[in-house]
Amino acid sequence: MEIIRMNADDRNVAARKIYAKADGVAYLDKTLKVKTTPAELEDAYIKGMLVVDTAGVMYRPISCKNVSDTVTVTYVTTDTTSATTAKLATVKAEPAAKE
């Protein structure tokens, strides 16, 4: 069993908000300018995160996958055309490009 410990930055934190727009990239800020790193996105998922879209709607993620240092979080969105239908959406964080 792997144990994940809280650190000083986790004290008194109820949840972490990750912002998403149509490009499918995860952002740290409401202005959608600062992209998350793969480590930040995975840490946020493990410790409890909300995905916030451009309309301000918040979603809970359902899965997280790390493949070749690209972290993808999947969450369920609502389908406005049918009350009984849900759609899956993703946000991701990729390693920074090497120069």
Tell me about this structure.
The protein is globular. It has a 4-stranded mixed sheet. The chain has a 3-stranded antiparallel sheet with strand order 5-6-7, covered by helices on one side. Helices cover 10% and strands 37% of the residues. It is mostly beta strands and 99 residues long. The N and C termini lie far apart (38 Å). It is built from 1 helix and 7 strands.
The N- and C-terminal alpha carbons lie at a distance of: 38 Å
Q: How helix-rich are the residues, as a percent range? A: 10-25%
Poorly predicted regions are: none
Shape: globular
Query: Order of strands side by side in the largest beta sheet?
Result: 2-1-3-4
Give short descriptive properties of this protein:
99 residues; mainly beta; 4-stranded mixed β-sheet; 3-stranded antiparallel β-sheet
Please sum up the structure shown.
With 99 residues, the protein is mostly beta strands.
Provide the fold topology.
Layout: E1 16-20, E2 26-27, H1 38-47, E3 49-52, E4 58-59, E5 61-67, E6 70-78, E7 86-93
